[in-house]
């Protein structure tokens, strides 16, 4: 089975050369207070998927324990082969192989949980530096 490699993490680290365009797509002029998320396309044709985190910047973990440093208040994916920034820093995320192409159909945001295929990143859970994430308790 063929797989496709994606960068999963804060896209500000790997899309520095087009970050202004990413921000213009995500927060378009004239739509005050609204954030556009999901699958978006750059003027050069490259596609990416982006979602805002529940609590903004910080460090989050996925369902496999991988860490994601966030400085833009968002997490996203882009094909690893389509990263063109000479200043790309991969330390804020991970290169992950997926058995399918990622689209709006298999990615999403629900109550702070961001899903990219089989990767689920909880951005709404409580995090303690020494103990890690704690599950929200139902009362």
**Overall number of structural domains:** 1
Radius of gyration: 15 Å
SS-based class: mainly beta
What pattern of helices and strands is seen along the backbone? EHEEEEEEEEEEE
Characterise this structure:
This protein is mainly β. Helix content is 6%, strand content 39%. The protein has one helix spanning 19-26, and strands spanning 4-9, 38-41, 47-52, 58-61, 67-70, 74-79, 93-98, 107-110, 113-116, 119-122, 126-128, 132-134. The strands form four sheets. The protein has a five-stranded antiparallel sheet, with no helix packed on it. Strands 8-9-10 form a three-stranded antiparallel sheet, with no helix packed on it. The protein is globular, with a radius of gyration of 15 Å. Residues 129-139 have low confidence and may be disordered.
Short description:
With 139 residues, the protein is mainly beta. It is built from 1 helix and 12 strands, in the order E-H-E-E-E-E-E-E-E-E-E-E-E. The strands form 4 sheets. The chain has a 5-stranded antiparallel β-sheet, with no helix packed on it. A 3-stranded antiparallel β-sheet has the order 8-9-10, with no helix packed on it.
Structural descriptors:
mainly beta, 5-stranded antiparallel sheet, disordered C terminus, 12 strands, 139 residues, 6% helix
How are the SSEs ordered, and which strands pair?
Blueprint: E1 4-9, H1 19-26, E2 38-41, E3 47-52, E4 58-61, E5 67-70, E6 74-79, E7 93-98, E8 107-110, E9 113-116, E10 119-122, E11 126-128, E12 132-134
Antiparallel strand pairs: 1-6, 1-7, 2-3, 3-6, 4-5, 8-9, 9-10, 11-12
């Amino acid at each position: 089975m063929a797989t496709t490699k994606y960068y999963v993490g804060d896209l500000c680290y790997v899309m520095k050369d087009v970050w202004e365009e990413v921000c213009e797509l995500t927060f378009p002029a004239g739509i005050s207070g609204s954030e556009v998320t999901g699958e978006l396309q750059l003027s050069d044709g490259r596609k990416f998927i982006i979602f805002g985190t529940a609590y903004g910047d910080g460090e989050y973990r996925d369902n496999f324990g991988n860490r994601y440093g966030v400085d833009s208040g968002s997490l996203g994916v882009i094909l690893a082969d389509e990263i063109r920034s000479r200043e790309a820093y991969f330390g804020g995320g991970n290169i992950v192989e997926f058995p399918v192409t990622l689209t709006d159909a298999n990615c999403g945001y629900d109550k702070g949980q961001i899903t990219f295929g089989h990767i689920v990143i909880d951005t709404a859970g409580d995090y303690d530096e020494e103990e890690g994430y704690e599950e929200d308790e139902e009362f």
